[in-house]
Amino acid sequence: MEYSIIRLAPDMSTRRAVFSARMILVTVNYLIAAVLLAGSAVPPQASNVSRKNYPPVIKDSVDRRSKAEREWRRMLDAYGIAQTPPDFYPITNTPRSLLGVADAIQILNYKPDPGDESLALREAVKGFVDRWRDLLGVDPATISLINADESSDTKRLTFRQSNYAYPIGGNFGEMVIVLSKSGALMQLDDRFVPLVDVPLKPVIERDIAGKKVAGKTFTYSDIAGREQRTQINSPGEVNVKRLVILPIVKSDAVEIHLAWEVIAGTSLSWTVFVDAITGDELKVVQNFNT
Questions:
Q1: Cβ-contact 274, 42 below 8 angstroms
Q2: 104, 185 in Cβ contact below 8 A?
Q3: pLDDT tens per residue, range 121-168
Q4: What does the domain layout of the chain look like in residue ranges?
Q5: Which CATH class is domain 57-190?
Q6: Strands, E, within 81-201: which ranges?
């Protein structure tokens, strides 16, 4: 008996089904690859999610100004001081000075025992800050005394704002109070900023922030006034110190940025603030005098 192998050719409907299944599989694989490729191609700093509502902005406010002016008048009345217009910082509306205040503001109302003068002055300042918190724009529980300089005639106290998750960099976040030995308020410089929501986690990592500064050229004037240029050539000349909150004044508003504080240079150095969300260079400060 002879056997023969008969190969059955698939009919047309079977061919069409196989072709369709293959096309679906190819399409699915293509879409998966495209999604993965797109995800890896978008740099973190370009993320729309990270940039949404960033940076938060503190805008000039008529209400904030009116409230500060009202508290200023109340303070002068409370200490029997003749009314004078306040000297406020723009936008934040916190006292910049006691310009125009003719008489001393006596905040210590008793004579302390010998040896207790320093403690009495600090307690007087503590009470003053607590009483006029709405004028100063601060919760006393969120500030800390960082420096106390004393001369023969005055005591200078510097307080730092600490209600943000990171230290405040730049020219904000501190208040300086100068007192006479008798407890008279002589100078008040309040650079506190209102609390707003700021991202807690950087998008730009520490090493990326350092690379943005490496290779940068800085320009400065020497002691004779001649322009000099120096370039940061070595990674060892770049030190990414820490994350900070950096307020930036823009027209009628203050932007609040999360930034890397980067020190560039050795004997001659600069502080460069790199936005930890966008990677932009925000500010450069020269750390030496010429």
A1: no
A2: yes
A3: 999 999 999 999 999 999 999 999 999 998 888 999 999 999 999 999
A4: 57-190, 206-286
A5: alpha beta
A6: 87-88, 95-97, 105-106, 143-150, 154-161, 174-180, 184-190
pLDDT for res 252: 87
Other Cβ atoms closer than 10 A to 68 = 22
Q: What's the mean pLDDT in 29-55? A: 50
68 token code pair:
């500060």
d(CA 12, CA 22): 16
Tokens 């729309």 locate to: 48
3-state helix, strand, coil in the chain (%, to 5): 30, 30, 40
Distance CA 146, CA 159 (A): 6
252 CB-near residues (< 8 Å, 6+ apart)? 59, 60, 90, 91
C-beta atoms surrounding 75 within 10 Å: 21
Placement of tokens 């320093």 in the chain: 118
pTM for the full predicted model: 0.78
* Cβ-contact 286, 272 below 8 angstroms: no
Q: Summarize the confidence of residues 97-115 as an average pLDDT.
A: 91
CA separation for the pair 105, 121 (Å, rounded):
13
CA distances from 236 to 196, 215, 232 (A): 35, 11, 9
Tokens standing for residue 86 = 């306040």
pLDDT digits (tens, 9 = 90+) for 246-284: 999 998 899 999 999 999 999 899 999 999 999 999 999
Contact 264, 213 (CB under 8 A): yes
- Please state whether 254 falls in left (phi above 0), alpha (psi between -120 and 50) or beta: beta
Contacts 24+ apart (CB under 8 A), 8-11: none
CB distance 229 to 221 below 8 Å:
no
Residue 20 Rama label (left phi>0; alpha psi -120 to 50; beta) = alpha
